[in-house]
Amino acid sequence: MKKPAILGGKPAFLPPLPFVKPLLPAYEDMEENLKDIFSSGMLTKGKYLKEYEENLKEYLCVNHAIGVSNCTLGLVLVLHCMDLKGEVLVPSFTFPSTVHAIMWNNLKPVFVDCDPETFNIIPSKAEEAITSQTSAIMAVHIFGNPADVEDLEDIATGYNLKLIFDSAHGLGAELNDKTLGRYGNAEVFSTSPTKLLVTGEGGVITTEDGELAERIRIAIEYGNPGDYDCLFKGLNARLAEFNSLTGIYSLKLLDENAKLRNHLALLYKKYLSEIPGISFQKIHPSGKSSYKDFAILIEPEFGLSRDSLYKALAAEGITTRKYFYPNHHQKALHMNMTCNLPFTDEVYKKVICLPICSSMTDDMIKTISEIIQHAIS
After folding, report:
1. For residue 42, what are the CA distances in angstroms to 31, 138, 217?
2. Contact yes or no for 104/81 (Cβ under 8 A)
């Protein structure tokens, strides 16, 4: 491995460059509202949650937007409130929470291969996996790249299946010049610190189905419709007022945040596209990615393995991520199944996500790209 070259043998980034840094609203902008929360003592189920949800409904152009304490519980609740049985088709190349939400509902995940270029679930493979036990498809917009929504909706409709989108990475993404949020039976977004819209911890459920939305709102409150005579088992997934207030102000930054991420992604592609053995995630032709993560694939022509590049970048103070480790290989599942997912197994061995956040400068992207070039020179 070559020694660092950018700063004469010293790491290029000291202190190390963080993998992600959230773009947060200015404290001064929120200060008066924060004082209002403290003085009122209304820390949850208050006016800021209502305002946040109304703002999201308008921004996403949906009938119902429901704030929840995190995306994982949002997924758990959506599946629970649909009263599903049997099997749910899901990609293995996704964050574990996608699959864990299925398992928490005593449903069986059935893994479907991912497209080796887009990294999203392959609709035709999902259709091939449908059995008499299949009740739903759970698709994911990987790294903020819109999935093949239209094909998946056609399949779900044709086989009378529920369609849920794990849209954890989806805020800031678009499909056909429209925000995500209105597709399938429901979508669930994350607003944790790695996302473009940040509430601290949190999530958002969107749906056009009023009956489902009402059932979810009751489920968030332990299944209590208001009279403490619980209609069904629920849990506590409320989004606190502090988080909701942060979301109100963060939403104002979302468009600019997405614009900056896309600019940085274009710079990466400009500098890295001429390096043999590097390829990029293919974005939906009618979509715009949020670039929650910027992923590249390291092919044999690069001259170094993905893991060797990971170490070389770490030596320069550049934090990267090698995700996702496929769910069908994870110990947590303890499932006696044989999975033939050649594209998933291929992608996870090659993928590496480079730092991308709105506070990064053009020069940072150029320096990281030069280091990658130097690693093989």
Report:
1. 16, 36, 19
2. no
44-72 mean pLDDT: 98
CA distance 150 to 147: 9
Report CA 320 to chain centroid distance, whole Å.
Answer: 17
Assign 29 to helix, strand or coil.
Answer: helix
Predicted confidence at residue 335, as pLDDT, reads 65
- Residue 130 in tokens: 């449908």
162-166 and 134-140: which strand pairing? parallel
Interhelix angle 71-81/96-104, nearest 10 degrees: 40
User: 297: which 2 tokens?
Assistant: 């694939």
At which residue do the structure tokens 């059995």 appear? 131
The residue assigned the tokens 């790209």 is: 369
> For residue range 217-263, what is the model confidence (pLDDT) as tens digits?
999 999 999 999 999 999 999 999 999 999 999 999 999 999 999 99
Q: Which helix (H) or strand (E) holds 188?
A: strand 186-190
| Secondary structure letter of residue 221 according to DSSP | B
Query: Measured between alpha carbons, how far is 44 from 205 in angstroms, rounded to an integer?
Result: 18
End-to-end CA distance of the chain: 10
pTM of the model: 0.96
| Mean pLDDT of all residues in 283-309 | 97
Q: Which residue has the tokens 């189905």?
A: 209
Residue 1 pLDDT? 41
Instruction: Indicate the angle between helix axes 71-81 and 210-220, nearest 10 degrees.
Output: 120
**Which ranges constitute the DSSP H helices of 181-339?**
210-220, 241-251, 254-272, 306-315
Contact, 355 vs 316, CB < 8 A? no
Q: Is the preceding omega at residue 15 within 30 degrees of 0, hence cis?
A: yes
| Residue 68 structure tokens | 């929840």
What is the rounded CA–CA span in Å between residue 167 and residue 269? 24
Return d(Cα 74, Cα 166) in angstroms, integer.
9
Q: What is the pLDDT of residues 79-137, one digit of tens each?
A: 999 999 999 999 999 999 999 999 999 999 999 999 999 999 999 999 999 999 999 99
Cα Rg, the chain, nearest whole Å: 21
CA atoms 191, 194, 198, 200: torsion sign = positive
CA distance 116 to 343: 5
C-alpha separations of 232 from 85, 106, 245, 256 in Å: 16, 16, 30, 42
